[in-house]
Amino acid sequence: MKKQQLISTVVKSGLWLIAGFAILSVAYQPTTAQTPDGSFHNPLNTFEGADPWLTYYDGFYYLSTTSGTSQLYMQKSATLSGLKVAKQELIYAETDPSRCCNMWAPEFHLLDGPDGKRWYFYYTAGTNGTLDNQHSHVLESAGTDPMGPYTYKARIFDPANDGYSIDGSVMQLNDNLYFLFSSWTGDFQKLYIAPMSNPWTLSGSRHLLTQSQYSWEKVGLNVTEGPEALQHGDKTFIIYSASFCATDDYKLGMLTYNGGDVLDTKSWDKSPEPVFQRSDENSVYAPGHNGFFKSPDGTEDWIVYHANDNPGDGCAGKRTTRVQKFTWNADGTPNFGVPVSITTDITNPSGDTGNDPLPQRLPVPGVRFASFADPTKFINHFSQRARVSKLGEPAGDFEFVIREGLADPKAVSIESKNHPNSYLLNRNGNVWLAQFDGTDDFNTAATWWQKPGLASPDALSFESFVKPDAYLINVNGFLNVKAPTTDAEKAAATFVMSDVKE
Ligand code: AHR
Questions:
Q1: Fewer Cβ neighbours under 10 Å: the N or C end of the chain?
Q2: In a domain, 67, yes or no
Q3: Could you tell me the residue range of the domain that residue 252 belongs to?
Q4: 312: domain CATH number?
Q5: How far is the CA of 245 from the centre of ligand 1 (A)?
Q6: Over 90: is that where the pLDDT of 360 sits?
């Protein structure tokens, strides 16, 4: 495009020049900040952080979360915040088709086995292609290392009621071991308890522990699941997750043991109100499926749980792992408080000298990218594919945040405004919106060199970090990555950025 044509085009398109200077002149404010020493921010991961189990043992924290696959993983770190960058170590992979798939709700408990203390790793798994065959399983470690190696030990079930069984956990009370789990009966997913003769065998049938009875336990579906024993002084509690996990109102309830027959539901008094739930003020939704751990010096009690950043994020990979300290009320019951915001500086557990290895992502106003070639069309994402089309709903699909480049802070990465931690990513020449996974491949494919527009220096073009001379480009309404050669292609690879008025 000749210079004269270019000027007339820019002038003809009205405000682009002003908008361009106004926008381009905005020096990119840092979009991250370092957390103060001795503190960290939630979450501990940015995807697939559901149903977390976290414990501190022999100088290290260990964390495992729902994988949803045929593999189980464990992370190990000397500091709590170090779990954010700790490698996901594979500790078990299953090939038996009867229990191959959909692995959920990992928990690992150090219990007395026939050859001494062993880690018993409880988890839920089923068959490929369906969730109807989810059952409770347990692995046994070779020694006392939580990293394993592990061997498959058993499927845990009550022969008289052998069916759907998830979220298995164990509780030691009155010198006995009990298995806690959740199962459907009619329209209710109920909590059950059964006695155990050893960490992998039930010694009696299951008994009802509780089922949804209050409205706050019935949001979406009548669900009580994720039972977790908590003991303090002479009191024993079972903290459980209530309501459908895909709703924002997934939350924690509490049963208090009143001293009767442990297997009798009447021995467990239910709190009429939830004990931990969403905080719209802190942008924490669907907090639940928790665990408990102690600080390194054993003086503090902490809760680990999963939650979503946004309403409607559902019961899938967007659930991330969060932790916070909790206290005890005068009556001996736990006080979990309110789920803290991801912008809160959380002081390390007592005895933990770590510093947050990741900078905090600051809230940054959104921007839109209009096509220079057709100002009525904007970059957006639809079913994870990046497109260039007319503005539509949800408006958030057309809004992005420019962050420091994941592969090079001098470059940029383009994060979705309504899907935090998801970035525009080059995948074989097509651009997708993909959730950050911490790998180098992701970081390089989601990093771009921001340059003056190929069709207008007052606009912008984005050159691939991994493929020099290839740019983000509109091809028939889809965002691709290729080297523009014609004036039309240069215009299709040129975009005008504008702030989104909050
Ligand atoms: O996250 C997978 C399953 O979803 C968990 O095991 C259960 O608590 C929830 O229903």
A1: C
A2: yes
A3: 50-347
A4: 2.115.10.20
A5: 7
A6: no
